[in-house]
Amino acid sequence: MPPVDSTLGYEQARDELIEVVRSLEAGGTTLEESLALWERGEALAKVCRRWLDGARARLDAALAEER
C-alpha cells in the first residue's frame, strides 16, 4: 500500500478513509492486511484532521475580525 500523500485534499482523504473503514468492516482480510489498512486509515484521518483544524482556524480568524 503506497504511503498517504499529505497533500491530498480533504474530500479525497475522506473518501479513501471511508473505503478503508468499509474494507475493515467487511472482514475477509489477513491480519497483516488489516493492520496495513488500519495504519492507512490512521494516516488518512490525520490528513482530514489537519484540513478540519485549518478550516476551524480560518473560521475563528474571520469571526474575530467581525468583532
TrEMBL record:
This is Exodeoxyribonuclease 7 small subunit. Bidirectionally degrades single-stranded DNA into large acid-insoluble oligonucleotides, which are then degraded further into small acid-soluble oligonucleotides. Belongs to the XseB family. It is an enzyme of class 3 (hydrolase). Keywords: Cytoplasm, Exonuclease, Hydrolase, Nuclease. InterPro entries: Exonuc_VII_S (IPR003761), Exonuc_VII_ssu_sf (IPR037004). Heterooligomer composed of large and small subunits. HAMAP family: Exonuc_7_S (MF_00337). The keyword Nuclease applies. It comes from the Bacteria. It catalyses: Exonucleolytic cleavage in either 5'- to 3'- or 3'- to 5'-direction to yield nucleoside 5'-phosphates. It is found in: Cytoplasm. Pfam families: Exonuc_VII_S (PF02609). GO terms for molecular function: exodeoxyribonuclease VII activity. Its EC number is 3.1.11.6. The keyword Protein biosynthesis does not apply.
